[in-house]
Amino acid sequence: MSTDTNHKSTTKTPASVAGMFLDRVRESGDREAFRRLDGDRWISVTWQEAARQVEDLAAGLLALGIQPEQRIGIASSTRYEWVLADLAIMCAGAATTTVYPTTNSTDTAYILSDSQCRVVFAEDETQLEKLNEHRDDLPGVEKVVLFDGGGDGDRIISLADLADIGKKYLADHPACVQAVAESIESDKLATLIYTSGTTGKPKGVRLSHRAWVYEGTTVADFDILHEDDLQLLWLPLAHAFGKVLITAQLACGFASAIDGRVDKIVPNMAEVKPTFMGAAPRIFEKAYARVVTSQEGVKGQLFSAAFAAGREADRYRLAGRRIPLPLTIAHAIFDRLVFSKVRDVFGGRIKFFISGSAPLNRDIAEWFHAAGLLILEGYGLTETAAGAFINRPDNYKLGTVGRAFEGTAVRIADGGEVQVQGPCVMDGYHNLPDKTAEALTEDGWLRTGDKGELDDDGFLTITGRIKELFKTSGGKYVAPPAIEGKFMALCPYASHILVFGESRNFCVALITLDPDALADWAEQRGLGDKSYAGLVKSDAVRDMVGEYVAKLNSQLNRWETIKKWALLDHELSIEGGELTPSLKLKRSVIETQNQELLDSFYS
209 burial class (0-12, 13-18, 19+ CB within 10 angstroms)? Predict the structure, then answer.
């Protein structure tokens, strides 16, 4: 693999992700590419250093006999080694099959078997145990490469073992990796990402190199991210949103500090001081709730006044009007006393956040914007290699998901469904021709399953999932996500709310509260000795939540109002099967788990 750092940039678009990586190494070889954790210490890795590791691993895969487009699994949380493995797979001409580390052993075995993986990178003994438990179901898996652990030297080897195999292979075939990488054509399979789904077996989405190269180069063409930028990457790399941020990195040249631990996001931001970060809306909701609920007394009054002024100033600014002098002065004072402190929580250097994977409530976006923190909401599916729409720093509308990527077409079909067509669209579902035919229209447009509206400037607003709309027994249609989003913006203590009422005469809701925010609330009121389960059963908490439900109902149509509701005694989780790994609600699962409670609302 070339180590010539004096290579000049070319305007020719590479055909593959591997080609993007080779180009980036030539362009930015001595610059920082990644920061990885060694214990509690961040270690910087240059593009050249990463390239040497990738070349050894890719050569190791070639030595094992991996052929073009053969699948290789990665079952791991987000970490530096995940990126190395993925880039090595790309450079060996193979295709990555992603597996969330929280996936149960049965589904893990199904994904690896359905995709016909020959090799699997496994994070640790926990992931290895899943493979061993279903070894008879995985006869095609010849090698397991452990990120953490030594293996047995035969079927199970360490990452270092694979690199050693690669080094020996390179001694006899010094140009093997570069030759393979440069031969990959754009229509070849790069990735199989299995949709987590809410029912049934996951479907493997086939994404070509063309799709990922298009995503990365489109982001680069926005000219909003450059070599001197730094992202904090925590998103699951098994998800398309995480994967596209790596592809964008190859195109733009910025560095990524990688740590997949969700509980370390805020401390890591304060330490590494990123210039941008991608996140799911739940992360912004939690940050908003944490800040809002921690302000009491005079300090709380100052925060309220500051954000009232910030929102008012934004209304002038976003409308293109001059901000009155008294408001300008007040805003400057509040910026120094309040907003700068909020920005410091996130490291103090954020140019913008990127929000995806689920709808972001506009009130939350406006709150961050008032503090000088821009959230650029985007939209896409696994079936579109993550991105199809996004707001841009110089052209955005809060409450929308922005405009379509250049080269992607959009139309609103009968019934309001958003349909897209372009280079980012999948090649189909793996081994599922019938499902592929269902997902695509006769003229080749992808059915997203989302309802949406386009304004005169081409900005798209997602109004809900078609399948999530329900009709009451009175014949009125209800869009649960819209109601749920309003409540999340009103109640800073809420973590989730689900609205139900299909074929019933009124709407009901199940609500969960954020444990940290609730603990702070309880401590301030002398209830700190109670557990989460004890608190949600208390009259004090029910009264507090009831006030927010009443506020919500005052903003709804009569047929949408929540007549009855309950607080669940536990937080929803991926482990409990109630959330997908990308933090989407598994509505049908939660409904089934709580069917008796829901039925009791109508008895």
Answer: buried
